[in-house]
Structure formats: structure tokens, C-alpha cells
Design a protein that fits this description.
There is one protein chain. This protein has about 180 residues and is an alpha+beta fold. It contains 4 helices and 8 strands, in the order H-H-E-H-E-E-E-E-E-E-E-H. The radius of gyration is 17 Å and the shape is globular.
Length: about 180
């Protein structure tokens, strides 16, 4: 293995570690699934090429302790192209598939959380590995419906050049065992 790829393997292993807890959480019914929508905001070098766009996605979380949930997230991001771009299309799509862990703090009506994960990013013509991390707040609307607002930073690399962007989204999730 090339040394520059070692961090990618370590990141992927760290992202896969919580998966072992998912079957136990699913058996207890502590699984939420839902949809999200919001804005995609390019940062750094990516902001030189692209304008802000939109993000839509889905996520699944399995609670393996009272304050931790591991899960899977997918986000489709469409960015606009900057005026004067030499690209034929007026937009660029980035699809992201990730494994994450959320740590919730507090036990009140509003529960802040931090999220870290490893992701694969699909851009036109290639797939790259990267990382994601963010902050948010969640609240239980009913016994089976949860609402979240979160900001997540994403970063992937093309030719050793970072391509960071941020998504700010709202999510509506439903508890699996009670709803289905």
C-alpha cells in the first residue's frame, strides 16, 4: 500500500467500526430513517469554480447507547458553475455516501450533537474518499418523529488538492420499529 493511501484506509476502518452495533440497535427498534434538504456551499478551491447549490439526501441512524448513534448517509449536491467557466454544463453534481457516528449531549428537548464520518464522493468521472464532520441540534416532535438541523463540512481530494464544501440542511426522521 502506498503511504499516501494509509490515512484513507485508517479513516475507512474508523468509519466502519460502529457498524457492528447496528444490528443490536435494530433489534431494539432504535433505528431512525429520514430525508433532508438544504444548501450546498463550496469552500476553498471549489468555491473558485462553483456557486452554491442545493442538497437533498437520506440518512439512517441506529442508536447503540443513550447518547451515540451510528449510521449511513447519502447526499446529492448540485452546484452551479461560476460565470465564464470553460465547462460545457452549467452545474456540477457531487454524490456523497458516508458512514458516520453522532454523539448527542444533554437530555432536554433540544439535543445538540457532533457528527464525524468517512465518505465516498462521486464527481463526474471519478470516485474519491474523504471525510465529513459537523454540528447540529435534534428534537423529538412525537414519539416516532425527530427533526434535525445540522451543518456538515465535507472534504475530498482530487490530485492531492482538497475540495471542501459545507451542507446546511434540515431533516425529518421516523423511528423504524414504531412506524414500520
Amino acid at each position: 500500500m502506498k503511504p499516501q493511501h494509509a490515512w484513507r484506509v485508517a479513516l475507512l476502518i474508523a468509519g466502519l467500526a460502529p457498524i457492528a452495533q447496528l444490528s443490536h440497535a435494530a433489534a431494539r427498534g432504535d433505528v431512525y430513517g429520514g430525508i433532508s434538504g438544504g444548501a450546498s456551499i463550496p469552500e476553498g478551491r471549489l468555491a473558485d469554480e462553483l456557486d452554491s447549490g442545493f442538497a437533498v439526501g437520506a440518512s439512517f441512524d441506529a442508536w447503540y447507547t443513550r447518547s451515540d448513534a451510528a449510521g449511513l448517509d447519502f447526499t446529492f449536491n448540485r452546484f452551479g458553475r461560476k460565470a465564464g467557466s470553460d465547462q460545457a454544463s452549467d452545474h456540477t453534481n457531487v454524490a456523497q455516501l458516508g458512514l458516520h457516528d453522532r454523539r448527542f449531549v444533554g437530555s432536554g428537548r433540544l439535543q445538540p450533537f457532533v457528527m464525524l464520518g468517512a465518505s465516498m464522493f462521486s464527481t463526474p468521472g471519478q470516485v474519491n474518499f474523504g471525510a465529513e464532520g459537523g454540528l447540529g441540534v435534534s428534537t423529538q416532535l412525537t414519539s416516532i418523529v425527530q427533526f434535525r438541523i445540522e451543518g456538515v463540512g465535507h472534504d475530498y481530494w482530487i490530485d492531492r488538492s482538497p475540495r471542501p464544501y459545507v451542507t446546511v440542511a434540515a431533516s425529518l426522521l421516523v423511528r423504524g420499529a414504531d412506524a414500520w
